[in-house]
Write a structure and sequence with these properties.
The protein is α/β, with parallel strands linked by helices. The protein contains nine helices and nine strands.
Length: 316
Amino acid sequence: MGAENGASPARKRSVAAVVVTYNRKELLLECLDCLAAQDLGGLGDAYELSVIVVDNASTDGTQEALAPLVASGRLVYHNTGENLGGAGGFNFGMRVAVEAGYDFVWVMDDDCMAHSDTLRELLLAGEGLDGDYGYLTSVCLWTDGNPCTMNRQRHPLHTTIEDFTPELQPCTLASFVSLFVPADVIAELGLPIKDFFIWTDDWEFTRRVSRVHPCYVVGTSVVTHKCKVNGAGNIALDSGERISRFRLAYRNDIVLYRGEGLAGYAYVIARDLNHLARIVLEAKGRKLERARAVVGGTLEGLRFHPQIEYVRRPEK
């Protein structure tokens, strides 16, 4: 029976774009403009997009700048009250979205600039897969149009994807820069680990999902990541003030690779030895401090067993 005969029209499927921010007001506003410009084409009859901003207690006037958008209903704003780090922010935002009853959660940093068709291509890919996927992830470019090094996906586990021309290809690890996840998958497998604070939260979460469900890179869905430099972190070469952060990365990586059993531990040992050698050969200063971050973080990770939190979807 059609709507013209008295039946209710089909409910649109809801997408929540979850954007985590901290003291990057101008980039955030640009990100939100990109989300407002999403063109769903014919899929606009079946899907609707909402925006949830998770603010890790910014002190740069972010809340005040967003007030008109909140008042107009263009977005939902949550201030966490303290800096929870990227991991805590995504944990917070994904929980809010699932508990609010959204069908899909589309997560990104505040410096992720979606193109006008980014979401449409994710939705088309999902429909082409008949919903049989754990997550979909976009191709991430840097500001010069080249692939963004820190956001290149992996498949299989230790192999970085180099060719993004396929319209759809399998994915094992992905970042939180344009990750599209059905809310049912989050409810099934849990939230990102907030205790990580920063680093590895995206890889651990996406690996947790890819162990259970097929996951894909959508070659026609593209975003631009406006990070400062196009490069991944390097313990041997990065500035001294970032060394303490690397300790968290090595700690958190243990949780990720522990899930791979003996092969995961073997990989961590080989990688850490390689990084220590690079520190000796390439670092310009603070070599002992850098080495302690590698070894100390790894040893701490062996004792680090954070809990995965679960969230329930509301009853329909």
